[in-house]
């Protein structure tokens, strides 16, 4: 092939390069055997530097120092480390405490409409079936969700955009979709919450009549740590204090993730919202049920957002360190 190419006299540059190489260079013979005694160059030795643990720790300390409170006793002139700019610990967002000094966002609290189980008068709080169609909105519940969405539109909740945070529970997510559709909000602004907004687990009350919830609220008024009786079907039995931990974690996430935004929290039940609101305004959590939300109710949160007809007797009892509340 190479010889015929040379003879023709018309050779492409690429073929010429190949031909020239072939004519001027004789390729080395391919070895048929490899000698076991073939010597290989020695692998160069790699010298690793010893680890300077003090330097590593110093670098780590420097990286986390901005989140620490300023130390007036630190003398940078005597310190072997470069000076680090310190910021007050109060500026570190995400360290959320109830009741908050201020909020970075504005919040609307919405209870989803009536569920299929609630329409039958049955308690259903087992998270195992929270995404089931049976946990979806009833016919009445859908109408209540539409009213909630129209109410939010009437007051301009999403005029400048908003984020909708529903529980992943079927009825809460359905309500969120209705709210988004009526208020012209893209579905990408619906952020499902997978655990912190689950309906309060009522333990052995699972499957009982809705009216029996009053027994649980009677226990809540005694102590925030009293749990409903347990059951072995996977339904949690949560005290007020348990729910308080969840909703506080939720607020910590929201206050860290957003700033000067509008957030609509959609809960499948009332207890999440009443415990959250009581904590936010510093009311006695033992009386949270007096702030109860009706299905489809919308409430804008601010310290004076509790409707007059909902003013609890606990307004006399401030709770500055929930869930440990005592009368003052």
Average residue pLDDT: 78
Most strands sheet: 4 strands, mixed
SS element count, helices: 9
Q: How does the overall form come out from the CA principal axes? A: globular
Radius of gyration: 34 Å
Number of strands: 4
Name the beta content range.
5-15%
In the sheet with the most strands, the strands line up as 2-3-1-4
Cα distance, first to last residue? Answer: 104 Å
Element string (H = helix, E = strand):
HHHEHHEHHHEHE
The proportion of residues forming helix, as a percent range, comes to 25-40%
Counting helices, strands and paired strands, the structural category is: mainly alpha
Low-confidence stretches: 1-25, 30-38, 61-92
Please outline the helices and strands.
Blueprint: H1 2-8, H2 13-24, H3 53-64, E1 106-111, H4 116-119, H5 139-154, E2 163-166, H6 170-182, H7 213-220, H8 240-257, E3 262-267, H9 271-281, E4 298-300
Helix pairs in contact: 1-2, 5-6, 8-9
Question: Could you walk me through the main structural features you see in this protein, from its secondary elements to its overall organization?
Answer:
It comes from Lactuca virosa. InterPro entries: His_Pase_superF_clade-1, His_PPase_superfam. This is Phosphoglycerate mutase. This protein is mainly alpha-helical and 328 residues long. Helix content is 31%, strand content 6%. The chain contains nine helices and four strands, in the order H-H-H-E-H-H-E-H-H-H-E-H-E. It has helices at residues 2-8, 13-24, 53-64, 116-119, 139-154, 170-182, 213-220, 240-257, 271-281, and strands spanning 106-111, 163-166, 262-267, 298-300. It has a four-stranded mixed sheet with strand order 2-3-1-4, with helices on one face. Helix 8 (240-257) packs across helix 9. It is globular, with a radius of gyration of 34 Å. The chain starts with a helix and ends in a 28-residue tail after the last strand. The model is unreliable at 1-25, 30-38 and 61-92 (pLDDT under 50).
